[in-house]
Design a protein that fits this description.
The protein folds into two domains: 77 residues, Nucleic acid-binding proteins (OB fold (Dihydrolipoamide Acetyltransferase, E2P)); 164 residues, Up-down Bundle (de novo design (two linked rop proteins)), CATH 1.20.1440.120. Helices cover 38% and strands 23% of the residues. It contains eight helices and eight strands; from the N terminus they run E-E-E-E-E-H-H-H-H-E-E-E-H-H-H-H. It has a five-stranded mixed β-barrel with strand order 1-2-3-5-4. Helix 5 packs across helix 7. The N terminus is likely disordered.
Length: 256
């Protein structure tokens, strides 16, 4: 005898994917909606049902700062997480507040730079590299600046660091420069207004583009130059996204 089942009871499409949690929020009494980033799929949302219950079989598997192998079932609005297994976990940075703040900030920057359902493997690798740097003990603030510059470069908004945006002349050592966050790069004093940028700050920006933060750890970096680079890249990130990332205020509070 044939039996007919309602459409809701039909087998749902399932898939397996590797990715990381970049943000999450509570749904109802026990569920969470996760924003996931995958090198194959890009950015998408999925529901982890009952994950906040102590008895949940998903448990802490969908925590941040871990690369996960996920089983998914297609849902009406979002996919549903059915299985989770940790492939890599960045335990060290989880235990340091400053590193965790930078890790969340890097995750939000990459999340916002990635389109829905659009694979961006370079951005995915950038995020995991930032977490690797934090895990290894690289300076938190240098990792934050390195990530910001990497995001700008990957998004096609990499700032011009070698010549004035107007006259195309390479700056001289010790020359007074200006930073143009909107146009993206440096201007000589003749052609620009705005926040000054010292030669030390320009050297640091160039070094961040060329080297990883752990390679800069042995250098003596003037505090004033670090502050200038922070202000400059903060303005460029604001110009790129139109508003500051939510996690930036938390990062400021932690680093104050």
């Amino acid at each position: 005898m044939l039996r007919w089942y309602p459409a809701a009871m039909a087998l749902r499409r399932t898939s397996r994917i590797t990715g990381v949690v970049t943000s999450r929020f509570r749904l109802g009494e026990a569920d969470r909606v996760l924003t996931l980033l995958s090198p194959e799929r890009g950015k998408f949302k999925a529901i982890a049902k009952g994950v906040r219950k102590p008895s949940s079989r998903l448990g802490g598997g969908v925590e941040p700062f871990a690369e996960l192998h996920l089983g998914l079932a297609s849902g009406r609005t979002f996919d549903v997480v059915t299985q989770v297994q940790s492939a890599r976990v960045w335990l060290g940075l989880r235990g340091r507040l400053g590193s965790s703040a930078v890790a969340w900030y890097a995750a939000e920057l990459v999340e916002r730079a990635t389109s829905e359902e659009q694979p961006e493997p370079a951005l995915y690798d950038l995020l995991l590299r930032a977490w690797d740097l934090l895990e290894s003990g690289a300076a938190d603030l240098l990792v934050a600046r390195w990530t910001e510059l990497g995001i700008l470069d990957a998004a096609g908004h990499g700032p011009e660091l070698d010549a004035c945006l107007d006259c195309s002349r390479a700056p001289l050592e010790g020359e007074e420069l200006r930073w143009d966050a909107e146009a993206g790069g440096i201007r000589c004093a003749t052609h620009g207004e705005g926040a000054p940028l010292s030669s030390d700050a320009l050297r640091l920006l160039r070094a961040l583009r060329r080297f990883a933060p752990e390679e800069l750890a042995a250098l003596r970096l003037p505090a004033a130059a670090l502050l200038e680079v922070d202000r400059a890249l903060r303005g460029s990130i604001l110009a790129l996204y139109g508003r500051e990332p939510r996690s930036r205020s938390f990062l400021d509070e932690v680093m104050a």
